[in-house]
Amino acid sequence: MKRTSEESQSRLPDNSALKQQQLPAYRLQLTATGVLSGFFATGVFCLGVGIILILSAKSIKEIEIKYTKICGNCAKLREDATNFDKECTCSIPFYLSETMQGNVYMYYKLYGFYQNLYRYILSRSNSQLMGTDLKIVNKEKDVGTCAPFSRSHDGTPIAPCGAIANSIFNDTIILSYNLNSSIPIEVPMLRSGITWWTDKYVKFQNPRSKNLSIAFAGTTKPPSWAKPVYELDQEDPENNGFLNDDFIVWMRAAAFPTFKKLYRRLNRIQYFTEGLPAGNYSFNITYNFPVTRFRGEKSVVLSTLTWSGGSNLFLGLAYTVTGAVTWLAFFSMMAIHLMLKDRKNTVQTCI
Amino acid sequence: GNTAVEVREELRKAKENLFGQNRSSSNGHVVFEKQQLELDSVVEETITGDYALIINGHSLAHALESDVKNDLLELACMCKTVVCCRVTPLQKAQVVELVRNYRNAVTLAIGDGANDVSMIKSAHIGVGISGQEGLQAVLASDYSFAQFRYLQRLLLVHGRWSYFRMCKFMCKFLGYFFYKNFAFTLVHFWFGFFCGFSAQTVYDQWFITLFNIVYTSLPVLAMGIFDQDVSDQNSMDYPQLYKPGQLNLLFNKRQFFICMAHGIYTSLALFFIPYGAFYNVAGEDGQHIADYQSFAVTMATSLVIVVSVQIALDTSYWTVINHVFIWGSIATYFSILFTMHSNGIFGIFPNQFPFVGNV
Questions:
Q1: Is the previous residue joined to A290 through a cis bond, with omega within 30 degrees of 0?
Q2: With B193 labelled, which of A22, A308, B52, B106 sits at a CA distance of 20 to 30 A?
Q3: CB proximity B275 to A under 8 Å
Q4: B166 and B144, same structural domain?
Q5: Do B164 and B146 sit in the same domain of this protein?
Q6: Residues of chain B with C-beta less than 8 angstroms from the C-beta of A302
Q7: Residues B212, B142 within the same domain
Q8: B331 lies in a domain?
Q9: Which pLDDT belongs to residue B77?
Q10: Is the pTM of this model over 0.90?
């Protein structure tokens, strides 16, 4: 059977570059000079960044005082939950040998508290915290995720619901300075400006109403809280209700079981315009948050900061080590390359 | 010969002649010719010297009987070429099946007519020639083209490229999938030590959904379609390049384990370096940056970048499409990231997109 030329042409594949695997392309050839210069540049970059980071981290002053053991009697008191209405304070004196220049930040640090547990992170209601769905009536699944902290015994919804809100850190820490060994004065601290901008202005909103206690009517406080949410800061309406800075900071779940969260910032007025002067200080802590049941620990941290963040040497070290290893590779490859370059032009067939 | 016994005799004699001196016999219908004197090294199936076996359909019918076919197979495999003439289609298929079942070899059958269809179907790879004899062979085959000489290009260029793309250096198409998924998944194993083994994911849920579909699928697809190690002209000029495919050098257990180890090492670096960096850190204005969401975003971003750079290093033939897919995947990741973390989408779906403000 004869084929017409037309028919045989119709089965011919397209002669386009795409279908004939002839697209214009760059064939990457890794030459010795290219690779060696790349490694050298990478090594220089990593070493440079690493050294800068290490120097910057070293310039930070940080003081940490663990107070679970020091306040041992308070810790024992709090192990029993029926003692919740007994107040317990403890005072920790310490000496600051050098002035902490610049802005000083006070953190509370927890050890062994797993804010990154799966059920824990899930246990919140973002729509309630935005103020739109306060009584979580509409979304069935929110009630599920906030459980068991979604409704109280008599069925009233809890605001704010969830395990993260219920476990809020409720110690109060006050820093005092012993001026001239006489009456200690309280170091002025700022409560504001410790949260992310988007948290304070987008993610957390109070329900709309003139009066917060009316806005939260029909809800009840979480079981572990002493005060309802609209009484967290009666003096400042911007810091009350869901907008309370300490509450917002706590609700941002930490990534690891050891974490520190910003508590207060130094208010640079009176004696503290340059920072914290050297001298005798003390922490007065109202101990409320129980940690001994799960063998955790609490501590207070005072720290200055730089552009590269807190005193964490790890990143600087990692960069330096990478830079050093890259340079090591560079030198060994350079040595091999120079050795082999002397062998002239032996043409070898492909494999 | 005319009976099975005769054929068997001829085969046996031929085999002996293979080890013997220069002798040719032309008895019956089995013709055995020695083209070159062979040396005395008698190793089974490694006969030096070029021999050809010519057998016609009538004798083949006897030779393919169950008690004789092993002899035929041994003899045929010792020869460089076997010519079977005047055979029926069924016998063609039987010969191919004989080689396929009793020898550890990949078989290819090529033919152009309807009588070749059964042979084409019984081989591993069937190639049909479209032309004078009609389309029957083409319809039954895996590959088809118009002239017999294109078989060279099919094997040496396209077949070789295909093997190379799948397997070379363990991290082309197949190895790459294992590598990126090991890097992606094993970080959860390391994170388990730090989250109380509560199965908390390191990445946010949208990233997990989109990772394999959107962020990393296209670059490897482009590599699988377009990658070439040598040009097609060089592949044809140097047929020795075909050997690694035949010897299965590029994808075996060892390469696979190397690939797995690479993935495990990547996951270790991907997890522990951000872990150390985030461990005791605070932002420059004191604010909390060691939170879970920031950590998740950092991990996800570094994973996408590392995996894309890995495939960029593996690609040896950069077409425009490769560039677009690789850099486009990274760009897509960032644009989706910015969208998901924006205030607007949080307002609409607060519970689906809780990562507002992270970027």
A1: no
A2: A308
A3: yes
A4: no
A5: no
A6: none
A7: no
A8: yes
A9: 81
A10: no
Phi, psi angles (nearest 5°) of residue A157: -70, 150
Q: What is the ipTM of this complex?
A: 0.84
Domain presence at residue B170? yes
Instruction: Tell me, yes or no, whether B173 and B283 share the same domain.
Output: yes
CB-based contact A253 B291, cutoff 8 Å: yes
Q: pLDDT tens across B3-49, in order?
A: 777 777 877 787 777 765 333 333 333 444 433 223 222 334 455 56
Which among A107, A120, A350 has the least Cβ separation from residue B240? A350
Tally of domains in chain A: 1
Nearest CB partner across the interface for B195, out of A114, A258, A349: A114
**How many interface pairs between A and B have CB atoms less than 8 angstroms apart?**
174
Residues 145 to 184 of B: which have CB under 8 A from any A CB?
146, 161
Exposed e or buried b per residue across A80-113, where buried means at least 16 C-beta atoms within 10 angstroms of its C-beta: eeeeeeeebebebeeebeeebeeebbbbbbbbeb
Q: What was the pLDDT predicted at B48?
A: 58
Residues with Cβ within 8 Å of residue A159, at least 6 apart in sequence: A128, A134, A135, A216, A219, A220, A221, A229
The answer to whether residue B67 sits within a structural domain is yes
The answer to whether the beta carbons of residues A157 and A218 sit under 8 Å apart is yes
Run means of pLDDT, 10 residues per run, chain B, 359 residues: 73 74 36 34 50 84 81 82 89 90 86 89 90 81 88 88 70 73 90 88 86 85 82 85 79 80 90 86 71 87 90 84 89 88 73 64
Chain B residues lying within 8 Å of A117, measured CB to CB: 195-196, 198, 200
Query: Is B315 part of the contact surface with chain A (CB cutoff 8 Å)?
Result: yes
Strand, coil or helix: what is B257? helix
> Domain containing B67: what range?
2-151
**Whole domain around residue A291: which residue ranges?**
62-124+167-195+223-314
- Band (pLDDT 50/70/90 cuts) for residue A140 is low
In a domain, A180, yes or no: yes
Chain A residue with minimal CA distance to B200? A118
* Contacting residues of B for A111, CB less than 8 Å apart: none
Give tens-digit pLDDT for A263-289.
Answer: 999 888 888 888 888 888 999 999 888
Of B244, B280, B321, the CB nearest to A312: B280
Average pLDDT (A96-108) is 89
Q: Which residues of B touch A25 (CB under 8 A)?
A: 226, 228, 317-320, 322
Q: Are A327 and A40 in contact (CB under 8 A)?
A: yes
Q: Does B320 touch chain A (CB under 8 A)?
A: yes
Q: Which residue of A has its CA nearest to B196?
A: A117
Distances (CA, A) of A255 to A38, A275, B75: 35, 30, 71
Nearest residue, CB atoms, B290 vs list A24, A196, A255: A255
Residue B194 lies in a domain: yes
CB < 8 Å & 24+ apart, contacts of B92-95:
B92/B116, B92/B118, B92/B119, B93/B118, B93/B119, B93/B121, B93/B122, B94/B64, B95/B60, B95/B64, B95/B119
Task: Identify which of A169, A167, A165, A166 has the alpha carbon closest to the alpha carbon of residue A126.
Answer: A165
